[in-house]
Design goal:
By secondary structure, the protein is of the alpha/beta class. The chain is 32% helix and 23% strand. It has an eight-stranded mixed beta sheet, sandwiched between helices. Helix 2 crosses helix 7 and helix 4 packs across helix 5. The protein starts with a helix and ends with a helix.
Length: 257
């Protein structure tokens, strides 16, 4: 058997978390939620950065409320993609998290490169996403002083997961955890800080070197989970009830790990 394939199989089985019942219902939501849209503008880059906030409605202020920043998958610059993962952003808000979902693509942006090597041809796209995340984080710090910025979690799907992985590589001290949903091109950082988690689809493989070997996963405490019944394009709101429940279940486990 090819060594890389063997290592990947080891990851998928050894790092599966036996103490999680993934088929169980997600944690009971505690809070009602509300949404709020921010039309931010980065003067340094002359760029609009739309953000949707998903917020718990609480009778009392949530002390040390943790922040989650979400990055969507590639949407061919049509816009609105930061809104199409509401099953998971709303669930996290209902659990008490302050969730900010960023629209990374604008109609005027160049389309995502479709020629290899992707870690070269798509790097400028990911860099723009990293700049967006960094800008939004700084804007939130100005307006929401009481959030727990020491325990920031970044989550991203597909191309947004690649942006998330690059952000953690460039700014390892700014995030406490990153969780990627089937990022396939940008290598996950090999590090203990931030903590690294990834949920993999049932149908598409990552490029060589994106996922850790079994030895790397053990060394750095990285957790990689492969879903058996969810395809890459079924991780947004196209997911059915069972798929949503499974993904939310793992997200809740990882974010509380």
């Amino acid at each position: 058997m090819n060594k890389n394939l063997f290592d990947l199989l080891l990851i998928l089985f050894i790092t599966f978390l036996p103490n999680i019942n993934a088929s169980a219902q997600s944690s009971v939501s505690t809070f009602r939620i509300k949404t709020d849209s921010l039309n931010l503008f980065d003067k340094a880059r002359n760029r609009s950065v739309p953000v949707m906030l998903y917020l718990p409605v609480a009778d009392k202020k949530i002390r040390k409320q943790k922040l989650v920043i979400f990055s969507h998958g590639y949407g061919e610059n049509k816009g609105g993609d930061y809104l199409v993962y509401s099953y998971l952003t709303e669930n996290l808000a209902a659990l008490g998290y302050f969730v900010a979902s960023i629209q990374h693509e604008l109609p005027t942006d160049s389309l995502l490169a479709m020629n290899e090597p992707y870690n070269v041809t798509r790097k400028s796209n990911w860099e723009r996403g990293v700049n967006n995340i960094h800008f939004v984080l700084n804007e939130l710090k100005r307006s929401y002083h009481d959030l727990d910025y020491d325990h920031l979690t970044l989550i991203g799907h597909s191309n947004g997961g690649d942006m998330t992985a690059l952000f953690a590589t460039k700014y390892p001290k700014l995030a406490d955890k990153i969780i990627t949903l089937d990022n396939r091109r940008m290598a996950l950082p090999r590090s203990k800080s931030p903590k690294i988690y990834s949920i993999r689809s049932s149908d598409l493989a990552a490029d060589d070197g994106v996922l850790p070997t079994s030895l790397e996963a053990a060394k750095y405490g990285m957790k990689i989970i492969k879903l058996t019944s969810t395809k890459h394009n079924e991780m947004d709101n196209d997911a059915n009830f069972a798929q949503r429940d499974e993904i939310n279940h793992y997200l809740e486990y990882f974010i509380n790990d």
